Amino acid sequence: MFKYLKQLTSLVAMVAVLFTFTTETMAAKKSKTLKNTIKKGFVMCGVSQGLAGFSNVDAAGNWEGMDVDVCRAVAAAVLGDSNKVKFTGLSAKERFTALNAGQVDVLSRNTTWTLTRDADLNLTFVGVNFYDGQGFMVRKDSGMKSTADFKSGMAVCTNIGTTTELNLADFMASKGLEYKLVGFEKADEARDTYGAGRCDAYTTDKSGLAAQRTVLANPDDHIILPDTISKEPLGPVVRQGDSVWEDIVRWSLNVMIEAEEYGVTSANADMMKTSKNPTVLKIVGVEGGMGEKLGLDNDWSLRIIKQVGNYGESYKRNIQDTGILPGSRGPNALWTNGGILYVPPLR
Amino acid sequence: MKKIIPQLLTLILIFLIIGFFTFNANVNMSNRGMEFGYSFLKRAASFDIQFSLIEYSRESTYARAYLVGLLNTLLVAFSGIIFATFLGLFFGIARLSPNFLINRFAGFYVEFFRNLPLLLQLFFWYYAALRVLPLPHETEGFNNFYLTIKSLYTPSLVWQNLNIFLYLLIFAILLVFIVKNYLKKIQEKEGRQYPIVYISILILIIIPSLSLIFGISTFEVEYPVYKQLSKSSGTFIGGLAIPPEFISLFLALSLYTGTFIAENVRAGIEGINKGQKEAAASIGLNRKQILNLVVLPQALRIIIPPTTNQYLNLTKNSSLAAAIAYPDVVLVFAGTALMQTGRAIEIVSITMFTYLSISLSISIFMNYYNKKFSLTEK
Ligand SMILES: N[C@@H](CCC(=O)N[C@@H](CS)C(=O)NCC(=O)O)C(=O)O
User: Fold this and answer.
1) Helix, strand, or coil (residue A200)
2) What is the mean predicted confidence (pLDDT) over B95-123?
3) Counting CB atoms within 10 angstroms of each CB, which of A19, A136, B46, B90 has the fewest?
4) Which of B182, B281, B164 is nearest to B218 (CA)?
């Protein structure tokens, strides 16, 4: 009798372990954020309040830009339709509170990846969709050629709650320059105040400078100095603690970059299904069951590429063709083309 | 006993409610892996602030940054209250003037500035009015005052041993109180009137000046000097620079609040029964005495309580500073510091407590002042 009892208990224990194990992974697969997103039928995405090339509302009222495309990719992967996104414009100051409070589930808003934000603000950065650095814009007729021409007593306009104001403080202190910080919550206020002559320089990420310059009254009256005073890896952010959701956002971005590397575009994606290259087959979802591993279906990546395009297409459409940074892609070229865009393999 | 029990119950209820929310916040925060605490206040803030009344640099702590913001809030609130009171008194009395032009002008001021939203007025001053000012190198200046888009640059006083001058000033103020009470007593005894106002002013001028006459405290006037920053821009170094962010906030707050105070003043004066003035005249008081001894003391009783409210409003409205980059406590602490640390609950609660304390202080002070003027029933 006791012999059986012992066996019985171990059987029960084994079943229990198995059971908890399966429910655990099921629960994990169906992350809270993923579950809520599917239930609501749209991805809640935090973007800027308007930054040309990154997140901006076009004349027809649609959001467009590099940062917008990340959220569209997530929507295409999770919900099958890149239009199922609810965009919320957030100021630099509001963004992390909005993400932490659950007002948005992805923050894709030219946000710099830093240790403090990653560790101390309970956020998780999933990758980098734009390698940037901080620069300065000044009036052309000032004759300034670089930051070496800066003098003590100048006024600098920028946004508060950013890495920008911290870098600026460090930079000026290191040069022994005294300056007046005129710090705004909204980007257009900082830009226009500089434009009016209140400030001698305007500083933010160089991509932001290029975008803001196009909206100034006379773009040609202003130049962006060549100096770059910081590293600003900009990328999408999620709340800490939901690793399934984190993986989905991370790989939605990664697959766009991987697709560019392997020449899969929105135009040829369907034809690529017959490719001989196993990596290409994984990218278009024919091989490998990558989607299932993320808790999605295997066409997730095909939809991203067909509806949003690969990284290069997104870059060309939003950054180059709009005239914001028409030239070479610099660090944002693929590692195979002399840039530093390098994502882990889709395997 | 009957009175204490309901009070006690209310108190317990309040504690329970606060306790519940604190507990709730704690649970929610720890669920999200956030910690609660004020230790971040000791960390280096590492950002710069445009304008500070005390020593501050990027190496200073968050607590210091808070203090900078608080002092900037107090500065704009205090100067705004003074100017608004002046405007209110002036236009309130002017509205009662028999002179048609003055009367109309005061009426126009009140109706115009009272009926436009404050934020709109603030934007008008900052983004429109002060934007058309010249650049520093384009201005001639006026007696060493330079009003430019970057700042209003004025001469300033550089003091040596300012503290001794200030101690004497405080001493003089105390002396004025003593002398005033003493003279009042004599007046009541002997019936003779002394020019108390003139004596007070003399005391206030002479005593602090002693430190200057004997060369203990000295000051020099420092003038703003133009400095070229680049081919197309410059600034002024030295003297005092009052930034347009302060000027717009100061103007918007005081012009707006001044209208309400003007209405209070008018209501206060109109609220005094005509018979009072006639009675005062009939016992042989002259016009000045009627105003000082009969009308004003009674009018003040009507004016002070609603004006206290306006002072509180002005102080709270000063938090609109954030919209125009004036570094008040909201912009610096509830803005920049909150963002850089992510300590939302801690920072918002400190900020709320700050405004509560300022408001209570104003109320207490004004209540004391009001009591002084209330009718003492004999
Ligand atoms: N990358 C920096 C700065 C980001 C930032 O806020 N830049 C401004 C100026 S370009 C901006 O995007 N403003 C857009 C907006 O206010 O919506 C950070 O993460 O702190």
Assistant:
1) coil
2) 94
3) A19
4) B164
Measure the CA–CA gap between B263 and B323, rounded to whole angstroms. 28
Ramachandran quadrant class, A295 (left: phi over 0; alpha: psi -120 to 50; beta: rest):
left
Cα–Cα distance for residue pair B219/B156, rounded to 1 Å: 10
Cβ <8 Å between A166 and B47: yes
What 3-state DSSP class applies to A60?
coil
ipTM: 0.83
List the one residue out of A178, A132, A130, A121 whose CA is nearest residue A151. Answer: A178
> Contacts of residue B47 in chain A, CB cutoff 8 Å?
160, 165-166, 169, 181
- Cβ pair B335:A160 closer than 8 A: yes
Q: How close is the Cα of A110 to the center of ligand 1, in Å?
A: 6
Domains of chain A, start order:
32-131+234-331 (3.40.190.10), 134-230 (3.40.190.10)
Domains of chain B by start residue, with CATH:
43-121+238-373 (1.10.3720.10)
Among A182, A221, A238, which would you mutate to test the B interface (most chain B Cβ atoms within 10 Å of its Cβ)?
A182
The predicted-structure confidence for B224-251, as pLDDT tens digits, reads as follows: 999 999 998 999 998 899 999 999 999 9
Nearest atom (ligand 1) to Cα of A132: 1
Give pLDDT, residue B158.
Answer: 86
What is the pTM for the complete model shown?
Answer: 0.85
Q: How far apart are CA A265 and CA B146, in angstroms?
A: 61
Give mean pLDDT, residues B255-272. 94
Q: How far, in Å, is the centroid of ligand 1 from the Cα of B53?
A: 29
DSSP B376: -
Residues written for chain A: 347
Residue among A128, A168, A204 whose CB has most ligand 1 atoms within 8 A, to mutate: A204
Helix, coil or strand: residue A67 = helix
- Pairing type for strands A201-205 and A154-159 reads parallel
